[in-house]
Amino acid sequence: MDRALRRLVDDVVRAAREADGRLPAERRLAEQLGCSRTRIRGVLAQLEKEGTVTRHVGRGTFVTPADATSPRLRATFTPAAIMSASMVFEPQVVALAASAATEDDFAELRRCLERADSATDYESFEQWDISLHRAFAAATHNAQVLAMVDVLNSTRNNPVWGRLKRDGFTPQNRATIHGEHHAIVAALIDRDRCRAAAAMTEHLRFVRLVVTGQ
After folding, report:
1. Residue 1 CB burial class (10 angstroms; 0-12, 13-18, ≥19)
2. Start and end of every HTH gntR-type domain (predicted)?
3. Who's near 37: CB < 8 A, 6+ residues apart?
4. What is the C-alpha to C-alpha distance for residues 56 and 110, in angstroms, rounded to an integer?
5. d(Cα 73, Cα 103) in Å, to the nearest integer?
6. Residues with Cβ within 8 Å of residue 106, at least 6 apart in sequence
7. Which CATH number fits domain 3-63: 1.10.10.10, 3.30.160.60, 3.40.640.10, 1.10.540.10?
8. In terms of CATH, what superfamily is 71-212?
9. Cα–Cα distance, 212 to 79 (Å, whole number)
């Protein structure tokens, strides 16, 4: 391990953790730190092995959130409890994002929508669903909000949640969810806080109905 380079990359990781969690691209990191992409790739591979960062093909490298919930505790969270927490928190997230989001944030939201549009199976659609909700939080430019959304998303690893969500993944429900996502993003682009929060609330009510029947 190149210790001097590792220290520099650690500084970048700390800065990313305080921002939106995303590290610069390998090429940009190499230019920023004055070294080859091969050396950067080696350090990132080590950080990924340690669990410090997570790399997603086509999306980039992200700082792994500090997960405040253990797998055993996550297993006790009911789908109803997860939805209740989401409905308290996420409408306020998009209301904040309506004021704080940048053009880059809007581009990322559109990208998530497009990828969800082209998803051919449940797993891909769910991945981009989660990515979109994380992008809403990232658009607030508030590290605490982003960390809280990451913890909330981690609770969805509950096996009961996964089974119920998959069972409700019908073409009609997918179309409804995706339409609601588009409505939230449109409200954000218009910087309409109230409309964004209302659209998120409507969306979460539908997801709650799909998952819990309530």
Report:
1. exposed
2. 1-66
3. 26, 27, 30
4. 18
5. 38
6. 185, 188, 189
7. 1.10.10.10
8. GntR ligand-binding domain-like (1.20.120.530)
9. 7
